[in-house]
Amino acid sequence: MMEKADIGVIGLAVMGENLILNMESRGFRVACYNRTISKVDRFVSGRARDKNILGTHTLEEFVGALKRPRRAMLMVKAGEPVDAFIEHLVPLLERGDVIIDGGNSFFGDTIRRTRYLEEKGLLFIGTGVSGGEEGALHGPSIMPGGSVAAWPHVRPIFQAIAAKVADGTPCCDWVGSDGAGHYVKMVHNGIEYGDMQMIAEAYFVMKHLLGMAPADMYSVFRAWNQGELNSYLIEITGDILGYVDQETRGALVDLILDTAGQKGTGKWTSQSALDMGTPAPTVAEAVFARFMSAIKEERVAASRLLEGPEPRFSGDRAAFIEDLRQALYASKICSYTQGFQLLRMAAEEYDWDLDYGGIALMWREGCIIRAQFLERIKEAFDEKPDLANLLLAPYFKEAVDRSQAAWRRVLAAAVTNGIPVPAFGSALAYYDSYRRERLPANLIQAQRDYFGAHTYERVDKPRGQFFHTNWTGEGGTTASTSYTA
């Protein structure tokens, strides 16, 4: 009798194939299926040849090849394809079997799917998998959530294939019920958007204000990666800037069209922040920057009509590069701070018991935003699990204090010279807003009461008491109901 597989994976795109090879290399027997059968045969006879991997040609054969409780992992496009495969699998599975969605699904869909499958006696996991194709093959960051009863069935596999920190702890642990895993992955991707945009802005300032060539910037990013900015994205940025195009023998980065794509997770993060009523301006600005990049033809036309200052730099270039490093680090702190604030709000909204230090640990290796300073985030939450804002933790408060003057010099230089730095600017505005005891919202609330009788609270009265003023003498005393949309 043929030995049954420990787990099965549906979907043989790059991530699916590499996860299967990762699982097999850790001693697990893996079944695989793809709607296009030729992909199964090509994989089994190619990269999976002579490995403990079983190719199947029908979903019935796929399900039959799995040990009980069956673990079927979907690595397919988010949205309707996930629902379609779930509907195909449900009649073939038995009570207690587990369906896993390892794609970038919207967390609300994961909440719905968890409830739907639990009502049918099945278990569901929606898990974030970060690290790209390299991570999937050698060790990704894995963020599972869903049916709590499913975790023991997948834990040995997931923690075996996950990336490990220095002491061997896997970058994978249970995140929380229903959509928690996919929510954490969504926020991870939102932070990733902000990180990438801020790095791109540092590059843009070097290029257009300092007049640096990619080869010079390559050396800067290599040096930055040796210090507190050490991270995967800084590392690969150096690699990119140093890459020479084989056809032109020039820097390849200069030949790439300046229009950035996206798959929606940054937009979801921004939308969720709006829904939660929590500020995440740096992620939102990074999303808007990609939207701006997409209107290339409009920008080309506008560049011939709209005027601005010609960038000129006359100071100490080495000193300004150090200022730029500090500005990037301070902005990065604010971006991660906004992400963790959003996680805290979501935990309250959806009744998730999130371990913020554990999440930082899961992101420490394997994932795209892995960075040295995630250790500091874990330490901050270990010391104070109910920490309201990372900026209040001693390490991050001191880091921003040290970088503040440099941060402001960089923003001033960029604005004066007409170089767009929306993520840097939003991060600094977030910091300056958070540290202010009073903001100009009192005037906004007065305006709202003037034109719409929306009422206001007073600083000399207890919170929760609302007042209305008849500003024109003609409005009467009737006020609008006080509520937050």
Explain how this protein is built.
The chain has 485 residues and is of the alpha/beta class. The chain is 52% helix and 7% strand. The protein has 19 helices and eight strands. An eight-stranded mixed beta sheet has the order 3-2-1-4-5-6-7-8, with helices on both faces. Helix 12 runs antiparallel to helix 18 (422-434), helix 14 crosses helix 17 (394-416) and helix 15 (356-362) runs antiparallel to helix 16. The N and C termini lie far apart (62 Å).
Briefly, what is this?
The chain is α/β, with parallel strands linked by helices and 485 residues long.
Q: Which consecutive residue ranges, at least 5 long each, have pLDDT under 50? A: none
The major pleated sheet works out as: 8 strands, mixed
Radius of gyration: 25 Å
- Quaternary structure state of the chains depicted: single chain
Helical amount among residues, as a percent range? 40-55%
State mean pLDDT (0 to 100 scale): 94
Q: H/E element string?
A: EHEHEHEHEHEHEHEHHHHHHHHHHHH
Please give the alpha-carbon distance between the first and last residues.
62 Å
Order of adjacent strands in the largest pleated sheet: 3-2-1-4-5-6-7-8
Shape: globular
Provide the structure class.
alpha/beta
Number of strands: 8
Q: What share of the residues does DSSP label as strand, in percent?
A: 5-15%
Number of helices: 19
